[in-house]
């Protein structure tokens, strides 16, 4: 999905990925993160957000919850993270990253609330009165009042299957007074998901009814209940190009994730804004007739995988683009396949992919590198898909 843009906008990452695999430094099923470009992308968004009076929380799940990448984002100006689930929150907090939003998209299990509240997140998203009651009780025990954000939906909402939940707009009068009575929490925000989506036919980002719903609900809470809603949090496809859209609509917060690596759908069709900063290494495992099979482990069902770059040596004349496909969603991704259209593919050839991914749901390794934009490659370390350090590599320089 992003291979052409990678070749055009970050060819240095391709060169270093080939080098690292062909010199047996990195194994197949490894994502490489370009730390410097991630930081540059983050700085671009931080600057744009400041210009538009919008605040950002960054999402790290796409990056495998990687602590080095997270720290680079913080240093670039996006100071706090949104954790998609409490396990991500734990990984980030233990790495010294401040938590902005916890509980969205995954609610915090009851047994983990004590730990999550102790991390003192700026806000916690709740889907129900019962969860708010649990948070209130524990927050009081910790001698604090926890700001919460209600997730809202209505009959006009757009929701992904399996991600449904929250407070129904038509029943606000049933729940808001009871939420206000809770002494250990205070309602400070409203959110919904997704508030923006990419239209592939028009090749542009458009708003969903959820964005208007967040704005409408916040006004009700302010006007009818006298609350001070400080966060109108409007996630999905947050990037430099959408920050002005959110600000103009009245939103206060965005949550960039894929934009950190320049891999939102928008970036597959446009050359402005964030640059691609992530690539996936594989290798030809075996060949059967017209198909060459490459090692998997890091493929994602919504990746929009189309092509792969293959090279047998570092010589640019050996590089070729091949049509690629991945297993169906109901299959384990032991392998992906390439169409061996010229019958030149060989076992052991390096294969590079650039597609939309969610590293945290894979079994891949994550290699973090820096310096490639300045000709000074440094392998900072190799991590699991959950952000755990596997091999520091001594900060190898090449």
UniProtKB/TrEMBL annotation:
Stretches assigned to the Alanine racemase N-terminal domain: 34-265
CDD domains per the UniProt record, alphabetical: PLPDE_III_yhfX_like (cd06811)
TM spans (from-to): none
Pfam families, alphabetized: Ala_racemase_N, YhfX-like_C
Record domain YhfX-like C-terminal: where: 279-378
Protein's recorded name: Predicted amino acid racemase
Organism of this sequence: Halanaerobium kushneri
């Amino acid at each position: 999905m992003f291979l052409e843009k990678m070749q055009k906008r970050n060819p240095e990452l391709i060169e270093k990925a080939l080098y690292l695999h062909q010199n047996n430094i990195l194994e197949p099923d490894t994502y490489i993160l370009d730390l410097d470009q991630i930081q540059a992308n983050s700085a671009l968004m931080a600057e744009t957000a400041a210009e538009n009076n919008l605040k950002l929380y960054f999402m790290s799940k796409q990056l495998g919850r990687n602590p080095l990448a997270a720290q680079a984002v913080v240093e670039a100006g996006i100071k706090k993270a949104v954790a998609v689930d409490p396990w991500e929150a734990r990984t980030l907090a233990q790495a010294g990253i401040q938590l902005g939003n916890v509980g969205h998209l995954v609610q915090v299990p009851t047994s983990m609330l004590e730990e999550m509240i102790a991390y003192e997140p700026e806000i916690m998203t709740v889907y129900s009165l019962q969860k708010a009651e649990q948070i209130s009780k524990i927050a009081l025990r910790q001698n604090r009042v926890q700001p919460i954000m209600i997730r809202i939906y209505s009959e006009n909402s757009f929701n992904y299957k399996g991600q449904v939940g929250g407070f129904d707009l038509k029943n606000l009068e049933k729940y808001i007074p009871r939420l206000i009575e809770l002494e250990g929490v205070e309602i400070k925000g409203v959110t919904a998901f997704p508030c923006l989506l990419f239209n592939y036919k028009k090749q542009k980002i458009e708003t969903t009814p959820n964005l208007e719903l967040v704005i409408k609900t916040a006004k009700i809470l302010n006007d009818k209940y006298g609350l001070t809603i400080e966060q109108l949090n409007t996630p999905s496809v947050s990037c430099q190009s959408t920050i002005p859209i959110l600000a103009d609509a009245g939103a206060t917060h965005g949550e960039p994730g894929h934009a950190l690596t320049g891999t939102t759908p928008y970036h597959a069709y446009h050359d402005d804004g964030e640059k691609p900063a992530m690539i996936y290494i594989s290798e030809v495992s075996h060949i059967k007739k017209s198909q060459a099979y490459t090692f998997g482990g890091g493929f994602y069902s919504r990746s929009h995988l189309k092509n792969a770059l293959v090279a047998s040596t570092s010589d640019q004349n050996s590089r070729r683009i091949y049509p690629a496909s991945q297993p169906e969603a109901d299959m384990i991704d032991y392998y992906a396949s390439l169409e061996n259209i010229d019958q030149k593919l060989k076992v052991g050839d390096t294969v590079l992919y650039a597609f939309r991914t969610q590293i945290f749901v894979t079994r891949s390794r994550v290699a973090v590198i820096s310096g490639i934009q300045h000709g000074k490659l440094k392998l900072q370390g190799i991590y699991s898909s959950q952000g755990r350090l596997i091999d520091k590599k001594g900060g190898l320089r090449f």
